[in-house]
Amino acid sequence: MMTVIQSYQDTLRLAGNLMHEIGHMWFPMHVGSNETRHPWQDEGLTQFNSAVGVKQLFGFDRSIVGRETYLSAARAGREVELMRHGDLFPAADLYYALPYNKTAQVLFALQAMLGEETFLRAYREYGKRWQNKHPQPYDFFNTCTDVSGRDLSWFWRIWFYETWTLDQAIAAVQSAGDSLEIVIEDRGLAAMPVPVTITRADGTVEARLLPESVWLAGGRQHTLRVASRPAVRRVEIDARNDFPDLDRSNQVWQP
After folding, report:
1. Which own/partner contact pairs does 58-66 have at CB distance under 8 Å and 24+ positions apart?
2. Which element (helix H / strand E) includes 243?
3. What is the mean pLDDT of the segment spanning 97-116?
4. Same fold for the domain at 11-161 and the one at 168-253?
5. Which residues contact 76 (CB under 8 A, 6 or more apart)?
6. Contact 100, 43 (CB under 8 A)
7. DSSP code per residue over 163-211
8. For a designed S-S bond to 102, which of 50, 72, 98, 125 qualifies (C-beta 3.0 to 4.6 A apart)?
9. What pLDDT sits at residue 12?
10. H or E segment and range at residue 144
């Protein structure tokens, strides 16, 4: 394999690009997906791998930069679905923002949702099953579903076949007797689980998880009830910053 790269202004960008291009030795060289018909299947997976590598070696979270590239396109209404032939992306910058960066963000979200151990087992199994073969997108989807033991059909549709965006918000936090009601709204169309972190005055931190099934069933709002004592000092959605939410300004509440 031979590749030609441009000059870079700093070490991090050069290292990231080298990791990306070397990573193509796995996807699509060993795992031979069709990079023209389904560019996300090699560019997106390799972008994910290189982001992981840069963070482990240099401590820099390159995925955050890629996330903003994707979200900028989504906010501007320019997004198209990932399941699209590589020649049919309407602009060159969208080819980079979506098959490369959106796919990487989707994989980080999937890893957070399944747990790192399960995700890596599925990811590696895909490589083993399809080494020296020619997988279709459905082979990647089916491997993840098979290894995780979970029905992920809703996930694949949302992130690969649609242009729906994620926008989870804390709409209100209010007292109700000896409880505190946290009103969560799903303001986008991309249904995802909602990890909620509650920090109390005594320093304790409580984690709650609202499953995606609430939104898949048609709900747009859900009230989470927690004890009002010790006093709640902060409520936050996705404190680990795992999901590509369109608007993070509405994900934190403080009295």
Report:
1. 58/12, 58/15, 60/12, 62/12, 62/16, 63/104, 63/105, 63/108, 64/241, 66/100, 66/101, 66/104, 66/105
2. none
3. 98
4. no
5. none
6. yes
7. ---B-EEEEEEEEETTEEEEEEEE-SS----EEEEEEETTS-EEEEEE-
8. 98
9. 83
10. helix 137-148
User: Longest Cα pair distance anywhere in the chain, in angstroms?
Assistant: 67
Amino acid letter, 235: V
Query: Residue 47: what pLDDT?
Result: 96
Q: 0.85 exceeded by the pTM?
A: yes
HSE-CB at 153 with a 13 A cutoff on CA atoms is 2
Q: How far apart are CA 39 and CA 24, in angstroms?
A: 12
| Predicted confidence (pLDDT) per residue in 135-181, tens digit | 999 999 999 999 999 999 999 999 999 999 999 999 999 999 999 99
Listed by start position, the domains of the chain span 11-161, 168-253
Question: In the prediction, which pLDDT does 62 show?
Answer: 81
Q: What are the structure tokens assigned to 144, written together?
A: 């993840």
Position 129 confidence tier, pLDDT thresholds 50, 70, 90: very high
Spatial CA neighbour of 127 closest among 63, 42, 50:
42
CA 3/CA 20 separation, integer angstroms: 11
181 token code pair: 């009601």
What tokens were used for 219?
């709900």
- With respect to CATH, is domain 11-161 assigned 1.10.390.10? yes
Report the distance separating Cα 135 and Cα 132, nearest Å: 9
Closest alpha carbon to 106 in 53, 56, 70: 70
- DSSP single-letter state for residue 223: E
The amino acid at 212? E
Distance in angstroms (rounded) separating the CA atoms of residues 174 and 153: 36
